[in-house]
Amino acid sequence: MKLRDLLLETNSALTANKARSGLTILGIVIGIASVIAMVSIGAGTQSTIESNIEGLGSNLLTVLPGVQQAGRAFVSAGRGSAQTLTNDDAEALKEVSGVAAISPEVSRRYQITATGNNTNSTVMGAVPAYAAVHNVAVASGTFITEQSQRSLGRVAVLGPTVAEDLFGEGVDPLGKTIRINRINFKVIGMLQTKGGSGFSNPDDMVFVPLSSMQKLLAGSDYVSSIAMTSEQKDLMASVQAEASALLTMRHRVATPDFSIISQADILGTLSQVMTAFTVFLASIAGISLVVGGIGIMNMMLTAVTERTREIGLRMALGAKRREVAAQFLAESIALTFIGGAVGIGLGWVIARLVSQLGSIATRVSPESVALAFGVAAAIGIVFGYYPARRAAKLNPIEALRHE
Amino acid sequence: MMECRDIVKTYVTGEIETHVLKRVSFAIRDGEFVAIMGPSGSGKSTLMHILGCLDVPTQGSYLLDGRDVAQLDDDELADIRNRKIGFVFQSFNLLPRASVLRNVMLPLVYAGNDARTRQGLAESALRASAFPEQFWRHKPNQLSGGMMQRVAIARALVNNPSLVLADEPTGNLDSVTGEAVLATFQRLHSEQGRTIVLITHEPYVAEHAGRIIHIQDGQIADDHEVRQRRLVRNAGI
């Protein structure tokens, strides 16, 4: 039997009952489309988050009080609960070779009021280096200056969201006064809109000089974290090691009572989480693919029963058992191939719709298309094998007598 | 040339052995028109399955063109059926989805002929079985019973078999169309020299053949030439 004949037979068998073939194909279409859509949403979300984190500032290392345990995500480090880092630590870290900038930071949430409006936002005690380290820029006015840092200046720089919450849209807050924890601060600058980056959103923050934050608001000399950048990306590891050794010596402890997290650590952890999330989504979608495969098997078993006489006749006319098996296997593979092709198209359309309607960027990768096609073909073979074998094993005499 | 030597067929169901054929021996020469006749349960269907290489005997040997098919495996039997035997069934067994032409070409699909050869062979087989050309593209369900059986006969002839095996070919037809089908067999025998084996339980049908083998209780009861052979002159449907 030639391949062309096999395809002709397949075509004639599948078009003989279009409604049934169509519904069976639909099962595979839904399965493949949901796998494609889910994987593309997962991949898109992952790349969005990764680019956001890279936007936090490249070459960034963050020293946090408290110990990060190996293998645990950094969010479990009990950050903020331990108070071991001081301004002097930040000052000492400047001696580490390869460090470009150091930004000791203290952040807390406070109620902020201005002209009758109030909001609850994060107040960040920052030094001038903060802007360079975290890639933030002012839209108007100035950022925290060295002078206001030295003089315990009661000045504040607003993120655009906070400015809007306090003064309304389009109002220039420069020169106005806000009250943080019942202390007046004068607005000296407003940041450009930057967008959230997973954990912190500089748009929704108020920046005050670190010294003012420590003395006037928080009432302690500790810092919440120290951010630093290295001069070059390939110096990150040596800076991290040297900083760790220095702080361990300064704190006079055997094992570090702080953790240093690099951008790579955050990315790595998030990638793990996102990969798990994508796999989770894909496996839920995979269930519908299996259900679609069972639909194929069901249809093929029905077809074998219905066409028992035909199978007997073909055998009498000289069809070998493997030719009978090939015919039924070809039908199930054709069903999954058509379903796979339509499903990939539909999945792509769904992914595009999600991108357009929601804020999630989606990405249909060639790998996921190849995977979906492979899975579709595998389902055709796996779920078509049993019915095909059943057809091939029929006794021609009994098959011919079948009513 | 077909030769059956001491053919025994035994079916075993649990502990009960059923001897369907008990040492059956006969030979059919090329170009003979033979009817195998017997009541139901006589073993004639089992004999037909063995002659048609759908089954193999438990004991004894069946030589088709000098080759013992009792020892062949499934694939070799399929090959023999494809090249040497043409089947005509009581219930026609045409593929409902396929046109008349495609039905006739079906054995050639398994023989691996190319499309042009198939077309030519199918057309000449349809002409030989006197099937009118205007219905070649019709589906079987658009045809009468007699017409369907002619398609089946054409399909049996298409790969030029050594043996045409017809199992109650008139069983589902009325007497007039049945007569026409028998006329077709007689013409194929007399004009083309085909070897035809006709299985039937009706003496009237059997008398259209040149020789009748009577089977009873799994044994040959009688084997004789037909003295007053029925000849059909009218080949219309």
Structure at a glance:
The complex is a heterodimer of chains A (403) and B (237). With 403 residues, chain A is α+β, with helices and mostly antiparallel strands.
Describe the structure.
The complex is a heterodimer of chains A (403) and B (237). Chain A is of the alpha+beta class and 403 residues long. Chain A folds into 2 domains: 3-52 and 269-401, no CATH class; 83-256, no CATH class. In chain A, 56% of the residues lie in helices and 17% in strands. Chain A has helices at residues 3-16, 18-55, 87-93, 129-133, 146-150, 160-167, 210-218, 236-251, 263-306, 308-316, 321-357, 366-392, 396-401; strands at 60-65, 99-114, 117-126, 138-141, 155-158, 177-180, 183-191, 205-209, 225-230, 258-262. Chain A has a 6-stranded mixed beta barrel with strand order 2-3-8-5-7-6. Chain A is elongated, with a radius of gyration of 32 Å. The model of chain A is unreliable at 73-80 (pLDDT under 50). Chain B has 237 residues and is of the alpha/beta class. Chain B has a single domain (2-225), classed as P-loop containing nucleotide triphosphate hydrolases (Rossmann fold, 3-Layer(aba) Sandwich). Chain B has a 6-stranded mixed sheet with strand order 6-7-8-3-9-10. In chain B, strand 4 (59-64) and strand 5 (67-68) form a beta hairpin. In chain B, helix 3 packs across helix 4 (115-128) and helix 5 runs parallel beside helix 6 (175-192). The longest helix of chain B is centred in the C-terminal third of the chain and has 18 residues, at 175-192. Chain B starts with a strand and ends in a 12-residue tail after the last strand. The model of chain B has no long low-confidence stretch (mean pLDDT 91). Classes of the chains: A alpha+beta (403), B alpha/beta (237). Chain A binds chain B through residues 1-2, 5, 12-13, 16, 309-310, 312-321, 323, 396-397, 400, and chain B through 49, 52, 54-55, 74-75, 78-79, 81-83, 87, 89, 93, 95, 97-98, 106-107, 109-112, 155.
